[in-house]
Design goal:
4 helices, alpha+beta, 280 residues, Diaminopimelate Epimerase, Chain A, domain 1, single chain, 17-stranded mixed beta sheet, binds (2S,6S)-2,6-diamino-2-methylheptanedioic acid, 2 domains
Amino acid sequence: MSVEFSKYHGLGNDFILIDNRHRSEPILTPEQAAKMCDRHFGIGADGVIFALPGQDGTDYTMRIYNSDGSEPEMCGNGIRCLARFLAELEGSEIVGKQYRIHTLAGEIRPTLEANGRVTVDMGLPQLLAAEIPTTLAAADEKAIDCPLEVEGKTWQVTCVSMGNPHCITFVDNVAQIPLESIGPKFEHHPVFPQRTNTEFIEVVKSDYLKMRVWERGAGITLACGTGACASVVAGVLNGRCDRACTVELPGGPLELHWSEETQRVYMTGPAERVFQGKYN
Ligand code: ZDP
């Protein structure tokens, strides 16, 4: 078997992109995708993204496997990469062009901007405990500022779904969080039946947050688009930040806006192709 691929990244959150426009199911199994993501025995990536034919009136469908082979509903940095990959495949990159993309989290709309940037209408955040899902609050209630015991310490967490689950904790200093050891404890905590992505946020100013992330199925990554969206929503719900914020990730900054008018979250950031190749 030989598969053509392109390698992209959005702020160092890196993905293998596959042209899957001829078939409605991914051409690779989750196991094959996980092998490709291995940084020593494969290409190396945080996930594999497939560009499939559209459904329900959309232009294309996005499917994604994490580096462990699990399948998330959505990926914010990944969909920016997908938008630029599609422009590349179509042979024309037009500033202002918007794609309608079907995902497991519903329809998401990325728009191409100048200088390789992409703005994504990330849709409505889901806040009810049953939607996240988490058992930290009653099914039809929000999980805002809830105590959660991890590693013998009580953390105050807020849960937000951007199609995929996020657990956000505000801390004084993100650099001091032992992410490698506590990340997996949050991810696999029994209060999260679908596991969770975990973000630690330091509020530098009301419109500037610093974030570190432990991703479900991928571990420490340099950036997480859905996580940055979820963190701004959590910050607003806790009265800690403005609706328009810059979120600084280890891989660089993202611009976020949780619109009061539409209640949707808009994210702007870069996406870049690094190389192409054939995987054997
Ligand atoms: O929800 C999950 O299992 C995530 N690991 C999916 C990937 C999210 C992501 N990196 C993003 O940018 O939103 C990357």
